[in-house]
What does this fold into?
Amino acid sequence: MAFVSLKAWRARSAERAEIAARLKRDLVAALNLGETDTIAVNEIACPDPGCPDLETVVLVMRAGAPTRALRIRRPMEAVGPGDIDALIAEDRDASLHASSR
It folds into this structure.
């Protein structure tokens, strides 16, 4: 196990928090979320074969609707505009599918 100084850990934590905050801002705007809606962005380890070591999970919690979990198969710092566009399309498709039931 490698030694990590407290200073390095704090710097890394601050950097991760800024990346998550930026991604949340971008996603709130892209998904047209309102004041009563909530979003959570987390990076998790993915144990599935063929999955990257880390992936980004976005929980979209719209008022009056079930929570929807969307996955971006890359770490938060690697998420780009194309990933956000794909996530919006996935959310839209899931919404259309749910409303047709």
Remarks:
- Strands lie at 38-45, 54-61, 68-72.
- The longest strand covers residues 38-45.
- Helices lie at 6-30, 81-99.
- The chain has two helices and three strands.
